[in-house]
């Protein structure tokens, strides 16, 4: 029986992105609990063709949770095309980071529409594009969206740790970089 964490070429298009992403976030937190002080929430995937669903998820991100947190929202644009949104909130509820990730090369996705929806809920914040591991085929966009959102979470937390520990010795910083490199070298979603 196939589980959400097992992939093969036939299942890339038919995976439950929210379920797999939630499972991977849970596993990441268990493996590196000392590194993840913020709560991480994976919201229900947005079907981009349904009016109001995008704004509804963004309002949930804003009002259903409190404190420092990271919100991940998968978006199904249709035709096996997935993108992801990451929003990082500070303690004071201000947005520190808001980015979308589109892993499909030569995509016809128009980010202006998503930006307008985002500004309806967060008028003073710009949703920026994040560089992703681009793959030429939509059939892998669900897999790559999950992978890129996880990478964004990891980078966000490691950047915070690094900036809060700027007084570390050269050897300690090198050790942190080696650990970071080991983590990022993991090419699978395991």
Can you walk me through this structure?
By secondary structure, this protein is α/β, with parallel strands linked by helices. It has one domain: Adenoviral Proteinase, Chain (3-Layer(aba) Sandwich). Helix content is 40%, strand content 18%. Strands 1, 2, 3, 4, 5 and 6 form a 6-stranded mixed sheet that branches. Helix 3 links the parallel strand 5 (95-101) and strand 6 (128-130). Helix 1 packs parallel to helix 4 and helix 4 runs antiparallel to helix 5. The longest helix has 24 residues, at 141-164. The relative contact order is 0.14.
**What is the count of β-strands?**
6
Shape, please? globular
Total helix count? 5
Helix and strand content put the structural class at alpha/beta
The first-level CATH class name:
Alpha Beta
Can you name the CATH architecture? Answer: 3-Layer(aba) Sandwich
Which stretches are low in confidence, meaning pLDDT under 50 for 5 or more residues running? 1-10, 161-190
Overall mean pLDDT stands at: 80
Q: Gap between N and C termini, in Å?
A: 17 Å
Strand content: 15-25%
CATH topology: Adenoviral Proteinase, Chain
Number of domains: 1
Task: Kindly list the characteristics that best describe this protein.
single chain, 190 residues, alpha/beta, Adenoviral Proteinase, Chain, six-stranded mixed β-sheet, 5 helices, globular
Provide a brief overview of the structure.
With 190 residues, the protein is α/β, with parallel strands linked by helices. It is built from 5 helices and 6 strands; from the N terminus they run H-E-E-H-E-E-E-H-E-H-H. The relative contact order is 0.14.
